[in-house]
Amino acid sequence: MNKTIRVIGGGLAGCEAAYQLLKRGYSVDLYEMRKVKPTPCHKTDELAELVCSNSLKSTSPDTGSGLLKKELEMLDSLLLKCAYEAQVPAGGALAVDRRKLSRLVEQRLSSFDGFRRIDAEVTEIDVTIPTIIAAGPLASDALSRSIANIFGQKYLYFFDAVAPIVTAESIDMYKAFFGARYDKGDKDYLNCAMNKEQYLDFYNALTSAERAPLKDFENNVFEGCMPIEIMASRGEDTMRFGPLRPVGITNPHTEEKPYAVVQLRKENAEGTAYNIVGFQTNLTFPEQRRVFGMIPGLEGVEIVRYGVMHRNTFLSSPDLLKASFESKDYPQIFFAGQICGVEGYMESVASGLVGGINMDRALRGQDEWVAPSTTIIGSLQRHISTPSEDFQPMNANFGILPPLEKPLRDKKQRKLQYYERAVSDMLDYIKDNQL
Q: In which element (H, E) is residue 206 found?
């Protein structure tokens, strides 16, 4: 169709939405403000920049994130294809070289004659123009005010936390060692082992360390991206059953099993930088140097990006949006990404994909496209559109899927049943809807 669609925001969701529209014959004006107005957390002005971790989580079929990737593959997701091309070793997870991912996405979008990147801040929404708002959790104040004025809804806020990145050459390899995360996959993770005394010293320092001041939203943190110091404050052993879990790890330097283990994952393909897995934090920069320097192997580590916390903004989507991600009150105005209540990189990609598909259908006068409830994508669509007294962001997990008719006792086999059912139902739905 010879029609131009506005997409506001050049993150994962906006780029995926743009691709879905471009390949269906539309022209797309993609607005991205970071060349003229940086955000508190982005480091570049490139499209599809990953702000937090460089991991897109597991690819295993017995995980919700693995199933989501399969569904996105079936629906021809651009971001997923580019992620595999930019992949760096990370065991059973899909981790990427973030700069390579950004370059690939921009190259693919720019290959369409109808694509135009506009480097400008959008401060007003024109509801008469077909638009997908994928401004992300760091939407500018002016844009946020415009959306609030249009919809008359109060915004909800929570803070997302970012883990530090360190240089590989500054890690003490006489203490750190490579090993498989939880004894699964290849030995792609660097491990820093702690005995009980070292762990308790670290725990006490972490829980008493100075934190950077936050506003009134400090305690409204999404569980899936919790700062390590908040996790530690919940109990002495909480970290040991979370990101410091030592299962499957033996220290080759001592031949002993550690009491706890801190793991680091490659940040880029060259392996010159690593991020500290699960160490999202709001400690002050001096405290990050002091406290994280207590970890064996990281005593003299060079931190090239400190952990920070930033505001995430999301709508009360069940009051505002249909399962198609279209506004209930303003036809052909769609939202995508974390601003509409999906949490996670690939979940944001999925929302952009769904928004792009449904914008096309809305312009053609067709019914909205809502994936089966047995799929991760379909369940996320229902999550953002189902009335709730305490609406919170949601990520991909088997807990949001309807129960199996005859579930198996074996946990892994039961999850594989969920996977097989979803793939079969999605395949049928794609055929029926001629996608």
A: helix 196-208
Cβ(282)–Cβ(306) below 8 Å: no
User: Please, where are the H alpha helices in 233-276?
Assistant: none
Question: CA 356, CA 336: separation in Å to the nearest integer?
Answer: 9
Q: Residue 271 region, left (φ>0) first, then alpha (ψ -120 to 50), else beta?
A: left
Task: Out of 1.20.140.150, 1.10.287.380, 3.40.50.1220, 3.50.50.60, select the CATH number for domain 4-155+315-433.
Answer: 3.50.50.60
Domain ranges in the chain? 4-155+315-433, 165-310
Q: Beta strand 177-179 with 189-194: parallel, antiparallel or unpaired?
A: antiparallel
Distance CA 9, CA 100 (A): 19
Q: Output the pTM of the full model.
A: 0.79
Beta-bridge partner residues of 211 = 283
- Residues 318 and 197: their CA atoms lie apart, in Å, by 48
CATH, domain 165-310, list 2.60.120.1440, 3.40.640.10, 2.40.30.260, 3.30.390.50: 2.40.30.260
Express the helix, strand and coil content of the chain in percent, nearest 5 each: 35, 20, 45
Taking the C-alpha atoms of residue 325 and residue 67, their distance in angstroms, rounded to an integer, is: 21
Using one digit for the tens of pLDDT, what is the confidence trace for 252-282?
Answer: 999 999 999 999 998 877 788 899 999 999 9
Residues 6 or more apart whose Cβ sits within 8 Å of residue 175: 192, 193, 253, 296, 297
Span 337-385, pLDDT tens digits: 988 888 889 999 999 999 999 999 999 999 999 999 999 999 999 999 9
